[in-house]
Amino acid sequence: MSPSDLLSEGLSLMAFGMGFVFLFLTALVIITSLMSRVIGRFFPDPVPASPVSARQSARPDANQYDTELVAAISAAIRMHRAREPGSKNT
Questions:
Q1: Does the N terminus or the C terminus of the chain have fewer Cβ atoms within 10 A?
Q2: Is the torsion defined by CA of 47, 51, 55, 56 positive or negative?
Q3: DSSP letter at 59?
Q4: pLDDT tens across 52-79, in order?
Q5: 3-state class of 60 per DSSP?
Q6: What does the alpha-carbon distance between residue 54 and residue 62 come to, in Å, rounded to a whole number?
């Protein structure tokens, strides 16, 4: 085979490969879009009950929990600083 034949075979193989990938990705996008529409039509998202009721069901002792969390983090920082050699305990 001559170099020009090899080059033309390479170009045709490249065009065939790129065309196949393009067709596959186009089919993938179309099928995914159709599937999304079918799922959305037959299985709609549930409507949330009420955003106000979600706020009312929050923890009543949230402030106490945050205070305990801050105390625990502060104690852990103090213990970490105490273990470091040459550090100042603040």
A1: C
A2: negative
A3: -
A4: 554 455 555 566 678 888 889 999 999 9
A5: coil
A6: 15
At residue 9's C-alpha, the angle toward residues 6 and 15, to 5°, is 140
Tell me the pTM: 0.46
Query: What DSSP designation does 7 have?
Result: H
CA 79 from centre of chain = 36
Interacting residues of 1 by C-beta distance below 8 A, sequence separation 6+: 9
Distance set, CA 84 to CA 48, 76, 77, 90 (Å)? 51, 13, 11, 13
